[in-house]
Amino acid sequence: MSDAELFRVMGAGDAFDMLLERLPATAAARETAGLSACLGRYLARVVVSPEEVPAFPRSTMDGFAVRAADTFGASEASPSYLNVTGRVLMGQAAEIALEAGQAAHIPTGGMMPAGADAVVMVEYTSMLDESTLEVTRAAGPGENVVAAGEDIRGGEVLLAAGHRLGPYDLGALAAIGVTEVEVWKRLRVGILSTGDELVAAGQKPEPGQVRDINYHALAALVARSGGEPVRLGICPDNMEILERTLREALSHCRIILISGGSSVGAADLTPAAINRLGPPGVLVHGLSIKPGKPTIIGLSGEVPIFGLPGHPVGALDVYGLLVDPLIRFLLSGARERGPCFRLKAKLGRSISSVSGREDRVRVSLEWRDGETWAQPLLGKSGLISLMTRADAVAVIPLDAEGAAQGDEVEVEPLFRL
């Protein structure tokens, strides 16, 4: 039987679009979370700053607050001389005001005194006596000063709804005194491993058995995507058990991942099980990619179901192409195919391919003479060590019949954390 008879393959991007078109519009649940529980979460509501940051003009250097005009023309050969009238203390309001020809000591972060519009770095000054300051370099208006509201303006939209919160965002929220935000609840993603040959990772395999690799890797990817992994266990190659397990998962999971059983062998039960769960059933069976060709995309009601290859590299690669962007879409509304970005690199050795199929090859990245090089890591899709050694995936497009050493190709970086 030919490949064409086994699969009616389509591109991963087209398959993703098909899923979104069939996916019912269902609002996710919201919750309020403190900053310590918000890393990686998606905002459900826009954040508008209630105040300015900084709330007062601040110095960015240790030195002297001055009126910039009093330093114009200052140099080592022709210094300016100012009268030091006071000192700004850290963490306290500046209670002095400067007039023409005056200066004040100020620390980094100190509040600018009234009348001052610049700070001269201490390196360009000398105290000639207790009150006479010599300035050997001019300062322009606003130099070494952050104006009130220059960082964040009061009433400004700081973070948009759908934005995914990173460490710097949490710092910005703390800066405006926002300690709780409304976020979308994490999507529960059920992960089911299938196959008579599988045993738990903590169990010693008997001859013919293998440990369940995919659950642990997929669960980590789900958590990194902003979802909540739900372990559905290991299912033997038994249709009744598989169908019962999936029906139970439909009641409490927003997405279901089935690892293994997506090919066309006698024990590959996933397509039939998905169709038994209710319409519309299997939408796609077969992608024009390698690895990952036997991937299944199904839908039962409003729950997307993915049949991922049993081989780890194929399963994890397809996750990045389909599942991660789906989670991003459901939590942020961003409709983006596949990984967030790609970069260009030169190929370290030639790769053969077949026209009509996108080949995805694990590579290590090197920096040589100002250029990025991608060195292919050869091996079959069942080798998990390929993923541990890879920095990126080189993409050989559908219409290419390979790529030669030195050719420029697109690569998708693999983020390890």
List the domain count as a whole number: 4
Kindly report the name of the CATH homologous superfamily of the largest domain: MoaB/Mog-like domain
What is the class of the largest domain in the CATH system? Alpha Beta
Q: What is the CATH architecture annotation of the largest domain?
A: 3-Layer(aba) Sandwich
Structural class: alpha/beta
User: How do the strands of the widest beta sheet line up side by side?
Assistant: 7-4-6-5-9-8
Helix percent reads: 10-25%
Q: What's the gist of this structure?
A:
With about 425 residues, the protein is an alpha/beta fold. It has 8 helices and 26 strands.
Describe it.
With 417 residues, this protein is of the alpha/beta class. It has four domains: 3-29 and 186-332, MoaB/Mog-like domain (Molybdenum Cofactor Biosythetic Enzyme, Chain A); 31-51 and 155-184, Molybdopterin biosynthesis moea protein, domain 2 (Alpha-Beta Complex), CATH 3.90.105.10; 58-146, Molybdopterin biosynthesis moeA protein, domain 3; 343-413, Beta-clip. Helices cover 19% and strands 30% of the residues. It is built from eight helices and 26 strands. The protein has helices spanning 3-6, 12-22, 167-175, 214-225, 239-250, 270-276, 312-332, 385-389; strands at 30-34, 47-48, 58-59, 63-66, 80-87, 102-106, 118-121, 125-127, 132-135, 145-146, 157-159, 180-184, 187-194, 198-199, 210-211, 227-235, 255-259, 280-285, 289-290, 296-300, 303-308, 343-347, 358-368, 371-376, 392-396, 408-413. The strands form seven sheets. The chain has a six-stranded mixed beta sheet with strand order 7-4-6-5-9-8, with no helix packed on it. A six-stranded mixed beta sheet has the order 16-13-17-21-20-18, sandwiched between helices. The chain has a five-stranded mixed beta barrel with strand order 22-24-23-25-26. A hairpin with a 2-residue loop joins strand 20 and strand 21. Helix 4 packs parallel to helix 7 and helix 5 packs across helix 6. It is elongated, with a radius of gyration of 30 Å.
